[in-house]
């Protein structure tokens, strides 16, 4: 992948791009990242004010709630010059013009704007847009290199397009870099031969707040975002992104998603989310709905060693079409789902869940899911360990058997009926190979 230097034609760092991606996959599935989620790791990235360096206190615009800085008129050449100056002087806050589309026409080492190498804030306003010209060569909009700290406020990033084995159609964050995307839109960016249509975070830190990532596309993984590093998403919407794997997100590393929506994505595996090995974190107060896959995991695939908690999530109306398997496909690792609803999903073996790992459902309702074969609510595989605590599995339907829960020989299911778990009103039966379950 293009890390420190980026060109769209002859970057020598892309000659082994396929091998690098294979290494990422292998490392992810082996849990080689070994990263743990800590409060200290999710670091707030703050840019320096108006080119005065990093040691001065920021002046805040009361109306937009963002730091004031140097005004940049609606002139792309001026914006390029101001970013170049900010990099040379150790950072800046730049106030872009409202109602302006900064149309990018030149490829500056793989991006339409100079690479960010210091703390730089770009403040926009109503209808402020950074856009690649449709007539220009292929390039992304922004690159953040080591020591770069990019903050976007009230901006739209669109039209980025990469050909060949290049990542991050809209934004690329290289190792040691970081970005905060706040009240912004990352829309309609494409990586036609690589990963991450919207944002690629390759070993950096990415925060997304009150933002919209929609209609981005990647040929390989991570239609909206591909992240190896730290990713935190809050009060944001990811909508209608597409990829081969992980329509919205493909992740390895530290993950926090809160108060957000992931809806309407398409992928061959992991309609919305594909979790590589080594993922640690939480998804909370979030809707994952109406995503589609033709393979595993209409809403999400969780593979390899991981430690993930889903709290107060709604996973609904996701479809694993064709030979697809379930809304949630847990391939390995440990997943806790608590105080959540898994409903109205469709799959083949497992309408709601297909479990090959260690899965605990706590105070969760699994209802209205359909499997064309077995396990309308839950399909527990031969290596799966399933525990249900104060959980309801009701009114699910299977085409053959195990309307509520189907347990393959070798798998273990603990209903913990004493805690109030109920498996009832499923068709054509409630359970197969589950001791203590009323068939």
What would you say this structure looks like, in words?
The chain has 439 residues and is mainly beta. The protein has one domain. 6% of the residues lie in helices and 41% in strands. It is built from two helices and 48 strands. The chain has a 23-stranded parallel sheet that branches. A 13-stranded parallel sheet has the order 5-7-10-14-17-20-23-27-31-35-39-43-47, with no helix packed on it. Strands 21-24-28-32 form a four-stranded parallel sheet, with no helix packed on it. Helix 2 links the parallel strand 3 and strand 4. The termini are far apart.
Index terms:
disordered N terminus, 23-stranded parallel sheet, Beta_helix, single chain, 439 residues, Pectin_lyase_fold/virulence, Right handed beta helix domain-containing protein, mainly beta
Quickly describe the structure.
The chain has 439 residues and is mainly beta. It is built from two helices and 48 strands. β1 and β2 (66-67) form a beta hairpin.
Separation of the first and last Cα atoms: 53 Å
Overall spatial form: elongated
* Number of helices, counting only DSSP H or I runs of 4 residues or more: 2
Mean pLDDT: 86
Task: Provide the structure class.
Answer: mainly beta
Estimated radius of gyration: 23 Å
Fraction in beta strands: 35-45%
Low-confidence stretches: 1-64
Overall tally of structural domains: 1
Number of strands: 48
Helix content: under 10%
Domain Right handed beta helix: 170-370
Organism: Salinispora tropica (strain ATCC BAA-916 / DSM 44818 / JCM 13857 / NBRC 105044 / CNB-440)
Region (Disordered): 1-20
Protein name: Right handed beta helix domain-containing protein
């Amino acid at each position: 992948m293009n890390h420190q230097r980026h060109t769209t034609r002859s970057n020598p760092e892309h000659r082994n791009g396929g091998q690098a991606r294979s290494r990422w996959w292998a490392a992810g599935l082996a849990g080689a990242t070994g990263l743990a989620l800590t409060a200290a790791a999710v670091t707030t990235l703050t840019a320096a004010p108006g080119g005065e360096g990093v040691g001065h206190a920021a002046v805040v615009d009361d109306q937009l709630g963002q730091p004031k800085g140097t005004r940049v008129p609606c002139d792309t050449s001026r914006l390029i010059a101001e970013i170049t100056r900010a990099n040379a002087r150790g950072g800046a806050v730049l106030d872009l013009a409202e109602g302006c589309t900064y149309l990018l026409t030149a490829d500056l080492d793989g991006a339409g704007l100079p690479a960010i190498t210091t703390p730089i804030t770009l403040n926009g306003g109503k209808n402020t847009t950074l856009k690649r010209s449709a007539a220009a060569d292929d390039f992304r909009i922004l690159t953040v290199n080591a020591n770069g700290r990019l903050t976007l406020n009230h901006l739209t990033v669109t039209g980025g397009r990469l050909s060949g084995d290049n990542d991050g159609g809209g934004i690329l964050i290289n190792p040691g870099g970081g970005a905060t995307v706040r009240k912004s839109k990352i829309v309609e960016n494409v990586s036609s031969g690589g990963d991450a249509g919207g944002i690629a975070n390759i070993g950096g830190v990415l925060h997304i707040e009150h933002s919209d990532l929609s209609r981005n596309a990647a040929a390989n993984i991570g239609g909206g975002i591909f992240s190896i590093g730290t990713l935190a998403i809050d009060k944001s919407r990811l909508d209608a992104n597409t990829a081969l794997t992980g329509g919205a997100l493909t992740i390895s590393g530290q993950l926090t998603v809160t108060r957000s929506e992931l809806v309407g994505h398409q992928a061959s595996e992991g309609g919305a989310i594909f979790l590589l090995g080594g993922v640690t974190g939480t998804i909370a107060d979030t809707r994952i709905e109406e995503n589609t896959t033709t393979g595993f995991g209409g809403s999400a695939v969780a593979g390899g060693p991981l430690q993930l908690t889903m709290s107060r999530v709604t996973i609904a109306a996701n479809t694993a079409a064709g030979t697809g398997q379930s809304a949630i496909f847990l391939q390995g690792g440990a997943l806790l789902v608590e105080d959540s609803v898994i409903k109205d999903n469709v799959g083949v073996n497992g309408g709601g869940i297909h479990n090959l790992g260690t899965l605990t459902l706590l105070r969760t309702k699994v209802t209205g899911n359909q499997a064309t074969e077995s396990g309308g609510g839950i399909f527990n595989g031969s290596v799966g360990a399933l525990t249900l605590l104060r959980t309801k599995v009701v009114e699910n339907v299977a085409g053959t058997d195990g309307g509520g829960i189907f347990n393959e020989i070798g798998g273990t299911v603990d209903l913990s009926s004493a805690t109030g778990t109920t498996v009832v009103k499923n068709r054509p039966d409630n359970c197969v190979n589950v001791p203590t379950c009323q068939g």
